[in-house]
Amino acid sequence: MSQILARMLVFFTSASVLVIEILAARLLAPYLGVSLEVFTGIIGVILAGISFGAWLGGGAADRGDPGRLPGPLLVAGGLAALGSPLIIDAIGPSLSTDAVSIVLAALAGFFLPAALLSAVPPIIVKIQLDSLDETGRVVGSYSAIGTAGAILGTFATGFVLLASFPTRPIVIVLGVVLAVSGVVIWSTRGTWALMSLAAAGLLSVALLGFDGPCQYETTYHCAIVDVDEARDTGRTLVLDRVRNSYVDLADPTFLQFRYIKLFADIIDVTAARDALHVVSIGGGGFTMPGFIEQTRPGSTNTVLEIDAKLVDIGREHLALTDEIAVIIDDARISIRDIPDATADVVIGDAYSGASVPWHLTTVEFTREIRRVLAPDGVYVMNVIDFGSLEFIRAEAVTLTEVFPDVALFAPPSYLGGDAGGNFVLVGSGPAIDIAAIETMIRSRGGTEFGIQGERLQRFYGEAPVLTDDFAPVDQMLGRP
């Protein structure tokens, strides 16, 4: 085998493993969401595949002719890569979001292609090693080439491929190129080679014929817009299997989600002016900006939304109008462009799956929110939690570090720890009139209660303040 071909194979297989690793997060997101735990599971499984494959390849190279191995391994790795989306889509609907399920799903989908492709570099090293006197140079150079390939695979996928193409076409191209490359260098080119190409073709057709669970694949989400059968103009935005937003295209004042109704109650009581300047952290279905625009003429809405494709979906299918300003960037960055003391209301409703992105939960970010609020402004935040309620307790105490008055609203069973779901936190400079908000809630038939002061302190107890240095949100978040 020529040195050029050897180096190309090591570079290509190493790059392919990292492409698969990044694509794994996209393929699992519709079923498991996007969280630190999901990334941890994927990284651990891919590393296990790399380790096992390197050990397997090195041992196989010593037991026989290493020159006969790269071709079959490339073919098998390509077929395994093509099969990964089909496996994940088959098992995805039955997956839960606990750590064991995450690891098992990653094992089922991605361990095999990572192991098969990682077996190639040690075999190539054995082929190229003519003398023990050259061991250091040969092993070192091919290790460097493999690492360079991994770096390119990472950068190309994260910065270019996923920004330009859906996931499945990338998988198809990668799997077919791997399989064809293996056939080309396979010394046995007869029946097995033809069968391999046929298998790659069939898997590619299967992937093309099955679009997967996503109606729209954005940079960050698997998105679906469902039409409400009971309300022709109603639309539900589903992101990564979580019902994210509901809008009525004919009546933006119609609010379906309980926590959104609570947002409206709190704003009606705490923000008495007719026209408001509202900053929304997270767009989703743009329900609240549409509601504010309709009910408070003359108001301005600024939405901080990281997902550009979600903005396109909002304009085409949901409640986003041209009058609503959208800054497309991470809210942690874009909030810096909001002038001091200009917002009457800041709405916190940014989600990745069922979790608030951790860097939008900390005391440092909360201080930025307080900075952009007018002296009598109010911050309302949607927080989902279940079980021991570690996250909502920590977020509540975090807000008390920044705002003179903080209140928490939820159904009685949530506050008692017997159930979980959407909680709404409120932070304000002036005192929050819980009684007036509860009167508003009762007038529409709601059941939520508010707690503040000593009752809130008893609720959060010894919970830690979330900071940029310590915000284990994914680990705190309870499971439904």
Describe it for me?
It is a single chain. The longest helix is centred in the N-terminal third of the chain and has 30 residues, at 3-32. The protein is α/β, with parallel strands linked by helices. A hairpin with a 4-residue loop joins strand 1 and strand 2. The protein is built from 18 helices and twelve strands. The protein has two domains: 3-213, Growth Hormone, Chain: A (Up-down Bundle), CATH 1.20.1250; 222-476, Rossmann fold. The strands form two sheets. It has an eight-stranded mixed beta sheet, with helices on both faces. Strands 1-2-3-4 form a four-stranded antiparallel beta sheet. It has helices at residues 3-32, 36-63, 70-91, 99-118, 120-128, 135-164, 167-185, 191-209, 258-270, 287-295, 308-317, 331-334, 363-372, 390-400, 412-415, 434-443, 453-460, 473-476; strands spanning 216-217, 222-227, 234-239, 242-248, 277-281, 300-305, 325-328, 343-348, 373-385, 405-410, 421-428, 449-452. It starts with a helix and ends with a helix. Helix 1 runs antiparallel to helix 2 (36-63) and helix 1 runs parallel beside helix 3 (70-91). 54% of the residues lie in helices and 15% in strands.
